[in-house]
């Protein structure tokens, strides 16, 4: 398994909009709100900090609120106060799979629809809708 190096990233979905736009993981600025995808703009709300937790897992948090972390908010990834929420990021042929640190089969980060404002959810591996790109910010 290849692990994403610690650093600052824009994380975007491999699923493109019908017009070919890239959609980046976006923080609303408010804790406990579902993460969404929006057109890639390299905006501060689209920059994420990946930190090593151990040899196989990492934490992910918004750059604008560096101490906070992405955790499970009842079926969707949300930003929460620090709590040791960990994720694995496994490289596959079409990008990365992001999955909870325990590697539950239903914990893949998914976009159900490649449109602006779609909430990111957890689910089974859903092909391209479960693939992500980490681009250095």
From TrEMBL:
CDD domains with a match to the protein in the record: beta-trefoil_Ricin_CCL2
Annotated InterPro entries: CCL2-like_lectin
Record protein name field: CCL1 lectin
Pfam family, one: CCL2-like
Domain CCL2-like lectin: 7-132
Protein source organism: Crepidotus variabilis
